Amino acid sequence: MSQLNETHDPSLLSWVESANRPGNGFPIQNLPFGVFREKGASAAFRIGVAIGDQVLDLTALAAQNPWNGLAAEALAACTADRLNRLMALGQAHWSALRLELSRALRAGSPLQTTLEPLLVGRDAVEHDVPAHIGDYTDFYISVHHATSIGKQFRPDNPLLPNYKWVPIGYHGRASTIGVSGQAFPRPVGQTRPATEGGTPQFGPCQRLDYELELGVFIGKGNPQGQRINIEDAESHIFGLCILNDWSARDLQAWEYQPLGPFLSKNFASTISPWVVTLEALAPFREAFQRPENDPQPLPYLSSPANKAAGAFNVQMEVLLSTQASRANGEEPARLSSSNFRDAYWSIAQLVTHHTVNGCMLQAGDLFGTGTLSGPGEGEQASLLELTSNGPITLPWGEQRRFLEDHDEVILRAQCSKPGYPTISLGECAGTVLPAV
Ligand code: MN
User: How far is CA 211 from CA 245, 317, 435, in A?
Assistant: First the structure.
């Protein structure tokens, strides 16, 4: 488990001036990793780290080989167009690289003149998915989401009996995961027959939804047959991003029994470009606690460290803009906000549970947390929950029950607390196009 160290010192300032602006989200304490290239270029993507409104080109820095030891090995793994090689090295390497980057980007660093020519403005670059994602698993770790969805189907018995014992998940599809800015056609498919026993309807999805989730990038994997104990689980996690698990609710309702979601989920999923390391999130750890009358997790899913600090205070929000609102120059409307700390399972538990049967994880695998709804009003992290009592009215007068063509959903997440610079996970935006 990542401890606090000199890279978390809240008083650290960078020679990159924009990183020192209060609330910019990418201060020297953050240092998230991603892949980038100049907008519109056809060149290969390079690995970079975000600092203020700039990206530091690590692929170019690697050619100068400024460091020794683990940091040098980690930097050498950045001569690639995806983060997988760096992810596969493990926690000690990531930490060594973060420390050298922190020192090199600090005000007064002798490396300033080496690094300055390797900066590119963040608004001048485009991104791709930061890792080759071999496998993608989506979980269901918000008990508030599970309960309110369950209520719509089973008013008397909303939570199934396994929920408080098993981190529920399904195997998703990696091929259609795209990076923020992704636009995709409205999915087409089968939906429930109008009358029981009749012929299913076929056509464009009528109940298209988003799901506000976080993504968990696996770093070092495990050999098949060797489970990852909960004590070691977090050392296998490279970092977190934001994830929108777009969902076709009408397709889902017809197909999901008995084997779970299939075509209702795999037409598109969108992630944010920057992966914020668990080490960067260490100042925002919180106790991971179950309500007193709930069953405690089985021993393999429990550890003192997980109880003491297995949760993270990450504030998230959903915004929506429409074709009409953009044409009128309206700001996107905020639909909900919620906090990752309210999840029922921790990310360490997800890793341990996923491998308890011997399942192999590999560097670059992605977990989705599941829709992160909170306990309160205004914390419903999907339209299915938010509009269960009827359509919502947007500030400019339009109504929504589900998403319309050309709607853009923008997810944001950040960590903040008094006395510490805000750590942003950036933004995850995606747009629905008409069905083809
Ligand atoms: Mn989901």
Answer: 5, 11, 20
Global pTM? Answer: 0.98
d(CA 30, CA 424) in angstroms, rounded, equals 8
Per residue in 137-162, pLDDT (tens digit) is 999 999 999 999 999 878 888 999 99
The DSSP code sequence of 210-231 is --EEEEEEE-S---TT-PPPHH
Kindly name the residue from 93, 145, 353, 354 that is annotated as catalytic: 145
Q: Give the angle 428-425-67 at the CA atoms, nearest 5°.
A: 125
Q: Is the pLDDT of residue 1 over 80?
A: no
**Alpha carbons 279 and 28: distance in angstroms, whole number:** 13
How much distance in Å is there from the Cα of 85 to the middle of ligand 1?
Answer: 27
Mean pLDDT of the chain: 97
pLDDT bin (cut points 50, 70, 90) of residue 2 is low
6-127 belongs to which homologous superfamily?
Fumarylacetoacetase, N-terminal domain (2.30.30.230)
Q: Which residue is listed with tokens 């029922």?
A: 344
Q: Give 245 Cα–ligand 1 centroid separation in angstroms.
A: 5
CATH topology of domain 136-433: Fumarylacetoacetate hydrolase; domain 2 (3.90.850)
Contact between 208 and 244 under an 8 Å Cβ cutoff? The reply is: no
Q: How far apart are CA 288 and CA 26, in angstroms?
A: 26
Q: Is 145 a catalytic residue?
A: yes
